[in-house]
Amino acid sequence: METERTADEVFNLLADEIRLDNLRTVAYAQHEEKRTGIASLSFSNIYDRVDVDSTSKLSYHLGELTGVFLRKHNDGYAFTHAGEQLVRFVLAENYRQPSEISPIETDGGCLFCGETTVRAVIEDQYFMVYCTACDRGVNAYRVRPAQVRERTGEDLIDAVTREQAGDLLKARRGVCPDCGGCIETGVQDAADIPFPDERPVSFITTSECRDCLRFLSLPLPVAAAYHPESISFHWEHGVDVLGSGVWEFNRYLHDGRWTSERVSTNSHEYRVELRRDTSTLRLFLDESTTVTRTERVRRRDQSKRNS
Prior knowledge:
This protein has 10 helices and 13 strands. Helices cover 31% and strands 25% of the residues. It folds into 2 domains: 7-91, Orthogonal Bundle (Arc Repressor Mutant, subunit A), CATH 1.10.10.10; 104-298, no CATH class. A 4-stranded antiparallel sheet has the order 3-4-5-6, covered by helices on one side. With 307 residues, the chain is an alpha+beta fold.
């Protein structure tokens, strides 16, 4: 039985350029043949496509890649999961620095001063969002070079928004958006977290992958907003939760339309209220942020009643 390779042994397999060329060749061939359903490439086909001195040399390099980055079939070679992930990373050139962009002004919200116009920039390979009034940071999320390369302005904002929403939906269901491992989520009292500035948030969710250690954190009302009942509720009131940047939700936190509280001091149940117009969605969550029940409340307009 073949022994499992260590991480450093796996990465050492890529030290020879011929091996990366082999992986790229399989990817390009699969792309060209995608309409025929062919998922693997024969030895002779690879040999015809790569710059290698002899069949024996190619056989050696393919043998080194097989089991980690390639799997061998009777009719040829195809990617393993690791090979698939690696070659997409290489082809997209996501090992490069993201391109510089001009600051993008867009709608959003500042948790601190309530300003509703924000400025997005790329900083240290992160999509950073700042308040245009007080210049404090209101959101940060990773960005890949491929996202920035051919997008500017609102197209880039939309790409980051969609990816962030997808990641948060997965995390809410306990699935790591990076490795597919298990994410565990808990609730922390914001008073116990040393924020540099006071903000209108009572509770914070923290989500961490047990395998790759990916970490995500959100105000509890924002995390609850990605529950299906909230997505439906807001859609009915003209708000597309999945098409909105997290920085846009800050305005609801700042003006008190989105709130959270602990149901009682001896309970690990939390109540989140999300208000739109005269309607309110209440979500009750346990300590792992699992929604246990929901209810909708409509406020009556008292202004027309006789005194």
